[in-house]
C-alpha cells in the first residue's frame, strides 16, 4: 500500500499540534493558572461539521490540482460527471480558464474551456459532493 506524502505531512502536523497543546496545558496546570473565561464551547455537531468542511476543502483542492488520486476521489468526480452529463478533465496547469474534455455521441474526445468565473459552479458542486462523501464515511 502506498501512502502519499501529503497524508504523511498532515498526520505529522496534527501530531505536532497535539504535542504542543499538551505541553502548554501541562505547563498551565503546573503553574496553577486558571483557564481563560473567553473560551468558546462548540457542540459536537459543530465540530463534526467543521471537520467535514476542512476535509472536503482538502479533497476539492487535491482533485482540482492533481485530478482524482484514489477510489474515493474518483467516486466524487464520477457523481459530478453524471450530474453534468460529460467527463471533466482537471487540468494541472493554472490558467485563467477551466479546461475539460467531453465525449460526444460518436465517442470522440472534445476539449472545451470556460472562463474560471463560470467554472465556479462546478467547483461548488464538487465541494458539496465531497462533503456528502466525507459525511457518509464518518457515519460508517
Gist?
The protein has 140 residues and is mainly alpha-helical.
Q: What's the arrangement of secondary structure elements?
A:
Blueprint: H1 5-31, H2 44-66, H3 71-84, E1 97-103, E2 109-115, H4 116-139
Antiparallel strand pairs: 1-2
Helix content: 55-70%
Give the biggest sheet.
Answer: 2 strands, antiparallel
Strand content: 5-15%
**N to C succession of SSEs:** HHHEEH
Q: What structural category do the secondary elements indicate?
A: mainly alpha
Give the number of helices: 4
Overall mean confidence score, pLDDT: 79
* Low-pLDDT runs: none
Give the C-alpha Rg.
21 Å
Q: How many runs of DSSP E, i.e. beta strands?
A: 2
Intertermini distance: 22 Å
Shape: elongated
**How would you write the strand order of the largest sheet?**
1-2
Describe the structure.
The structure is a single chain. With 140 residues, this protein is mostly helical. It has a domain at 44-88 and 118-139. Helices cover 63% and strands 10% of the residues. It is built from four helices and two strands; from the N terminus they run αααββα. It has helices at 5-31, 44-66, 71-84, 116-139, and strands at residues 97-103, 109-115. Strands 1-2 form a two-stranded antiparallel sheet. β1 (97-103) and β2 form a beta hairpin. α2 packs across α4. The longest helix has 27 residues, at 5-31. It is elongated. The two termini are 22 Å apart. The model has no long low-confidence stretch (mean pLDDT 79).
Amino acid at each position: 500500500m502506498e501512502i502519499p506524502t501529503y497524508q504523511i505531512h498532515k498526520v505529522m502536523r496534527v501530531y505536532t499540534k497535539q504535542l504542543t497543546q499538551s505541553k502548554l496545558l501541562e505547563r498551565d496546570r503546573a503553574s496553577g493558572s486558571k483557564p481563560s473565561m473567553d473560551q468558546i464551547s462548540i457542540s459536537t455537531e459543530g465540530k463534526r461539521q467543521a471537520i467535514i468542511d476542512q476535509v472536503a476543502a482538502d479533497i476539492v483542492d487535491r482533485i482540482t490540482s492533481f485530478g482524482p488520486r484514489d477510489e474515493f476521489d474518483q467516486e466524487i468526480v464520477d457523481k459530478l460527471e453524471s450530474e453534468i452529463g460529460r467527463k471533466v478533465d482537471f487540468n494541472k496547469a493554472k490558467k485563467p480558464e477551466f479546461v475539460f474534455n467531453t465525449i460526444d455521441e460518436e465517442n470522440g474526445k472534445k476539449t472545451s474551456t470556460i472562463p474560471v468565473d463560470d467554472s465556479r459552479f462546478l467547483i461548488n458542486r464538487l465541494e458539496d459532493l465531497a462533503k456528502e462523501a466525507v459525511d457518509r464515511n464518518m457515519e460508517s
